[in-house]
Structure formats: structure tokens, C-alpha cells
Amino acid sequence: MVDSPPSNPPKAGLPGDLAEATRDEAALTRFLRGLPGIDAVGLEQRAASLAGRAVKGDAKLRAIDTAIGMVDLTTLEGADNASKVRALAAKARRPDSRFPDVPRVAALCVYPDLVSDAVAALRGSGVGVASVATAFPSGRSTIRAKLAEVELAVESGADEVDMVIDRGAFLAGEYGRVFDEIEQVRAACAPAHLKVILETGELGGYDNVWRASWLALLAGADFIKTSTGKVSPAATLPVTHVLLRAVREWRDRTGQPRGVKPAGGIRTTKDAVRYLVAVLEVAGPEWLTPESFRFGASGLLNDLLMQRETQLDGHYSGPDQVAVDL
NCBIfam families in the record, alphabetically (predicted)? Predict the structure, then answer.
């Protein structure tokens, strides 16, 4: 849309109003600014109400196993290296060596230069390899540099790419620039799946989160993701409700399923179960799969494993009995 002819052919495969929104920046802006506002009070009340729902017994064990299978086990630190990636890959394959029936996680998420190490360590396991890209976490770089990161990740074997949007451009109302960048990353990362990180803690309110969700979906996101985990606040239940509502409405209007990934600040089994209840009630049971919902987390898995043992054996396992992340 930016630096392009005034009007482009609308995207094929979308219903009329959504296709028209992709024609040019003016049409996209009209569509996004014409979206109905979010009732913040109602949203937060519903999120709090659902968060209070009790899940116990066999249902809790099923929820724990479901959550384990949705974890994107993540390491995104400056001290990351091949040895740490290999150790986490072993944990991703078999989260608790004492219990072989524990589900494997969905994916291991690393920086682009460590994708090849993750791919080698996970080959044949069924665990995916995800890579952040596009100048994570700030998103501040040239499009050429961002696309080079994407290409490195995909050429190294990444199954999924987690990109960050240009929040500065979005907040300035340059929706076409953000749209174009997502489209370019979408093209560069094929056939890998694309997760678009909105960094909701920087967007300034639920209405902007709603607009950013629709922008990302229109531009080709397979998943919309709350946060990098490097900004506070990161994932919250009300914000995740907004993203879940967006993908549900997108599916209802287009027939195309899309996923949601909350990331950052989800550390306990209680947290995870609350998010699963939100998925069920806001989006629907068909989203309760790793293909449609993920947790971006580093510490969550250990608590899920400890609580799983509690459900099975009736006593709480301390962290010294669960392999911790290196």
C-alpha cells in the first residue's frame, strides 16, 4: 500500500467488505477506524468472571495435558547458545523423563541464528521450530534487514516465524505501512506459518488492540500474538479475549481458521487454565488445539509438570524434581 499505486486489486478469497479494505491505505484506514469500539468495562468483567471458574479433578488433568501440548517453549536471551538450545530441545521432546505419557510441547522458539541447532536437535520429534524475526523485540530496523532475518530463519528450517509489527507506524495511523510489512514477511516466510506479534502493552487500549488484530489478519497472519514478553504489561486475559474474538469473527466471516498466542507473564498452571477457559468460551472448543492456540512461555512448563504430578499422585512435586531450564 505504501509507495504503491493509489488503488490495488482487493485480496482474493475474502468477502466484499474485507476485500475492499485491502485495496489501498485509505480503504484500510476507513475499515479499521469504522470497527465498533470495545466495551472495556464489560470486557474486563467477563474476563474476571471466567477466570473464577473452577476446574478440578480429571478435568484439570486434561487441561494440564492440553496446555503442555500448546506450549511454545521459548528462550530469547542474549546469552542463548547452541548448548542451551539442545538442552531445551530435549525437554521439548520429553518434558518429564519420569513420565513418558506427558505430551510433547508444540514448538521450541529461538532466535534466527539458532534455528539450525533447534532443527537438528528436534528432527523427527514432531516438535516444531519457531523463530522470532523482524528486529525482535523492538521492530526497529529497515525492511531489508527484517526480511533478511526471516529468510535466515526459513532457510535454516523454521516451521514458524514470529514477527513484530512496527508499533510506531501503527500508533501514527500508518496502517498501510504496517500492512505492507506483514504482507512482505508473509511472502518471505512461506511455507512457514506466520505469527504476528502486536505488542499489545504498547498499543494504548483495547480499541487499538482490536484494530491491530484485524489489520494483521487482513495482511495474512496465521496467528495473532499478544506480546514479545519483553514489555510490561505482556499477555493479559482481557487482551487475549479481544484477540480470540477477532479470530472467531474472522472465521465466521471468511471460513478461514486463525490462531492466537498469548505470551509473557503466564507462569502458573492456574494462569494457563484460565486462558483455556477463555479459549473455550470466547472462541470455541475447536480452538483448543496447538494448531489454533499457543502459550508463549519459558517458566510455565515446569509448573504444569509439577501440578500434573500432584493431580496423579496427590502430593506436590518440588522444582528440584523437575528438570529446570538452563
Answer: deoC
d(CA 212, CA 162): 15
Residues 6+ apart with CB under 8 A from 125: 89, 92, 93, 104
Half-sphere exposure of 42 (CA within 13 A, CB side): 4
pLDDT for residue 315 is more than 90: no
Over range 89-102, report the average pLDDT.
95
Q: Is the pLDDT of residue 8 over 90?
A: no
| Distance, CA of 72 to CA of 294 (rounded, Å) | 7
Q: What residues contact residue 281 under an 8 Å CB cut-off, 6+ apart?
A: 50
Q: In what order do the strands lie in the sheet with 160-164?
A: 259-261, 223-225, 193-197, 160-164, 128-133, 107-110, 71-74, 295-297
Q: Which domains does the chain have, with CATH numbers?
A: 1-34 (no CATH), 40-318 (3.20.20.70)
What is the spatial distance between Cα 264 and Cα 151, in angstroms, rounded to a whole number? 26
| Section 282-308 average pLDDT | 96
List residues with catalytic annotation: 162, 225, 261
Express the helix, strand and coil content of the chain in percent, nearest 5 each: 50, 10, 40
Judge contact between 9 and 27, C-beta under 8 A. Answer: no
Closest CA to 166 of 177, 152, 150: 177
In 3D space, the residue among 121, 295, 283 whose CA is nearest the CA of residue 304 turns out to be 295
| Beta-carbon contacts of residue 18 (< 8 Å; ≥ 6 apart) | 11, 31, 218, 253, 254
Contact between 262 and 227 under an 8 Å Cβ cutoff? The reply is: yes
Measured distance CA(289)–CA(307) in Å, rounded: 20
pLDDT per position as a tens digit, 182-218:
999 999 999 999 999 999 999 999 999 999 999 999 9
Give yes or no for residue 324 having a pLDDT over 50: no
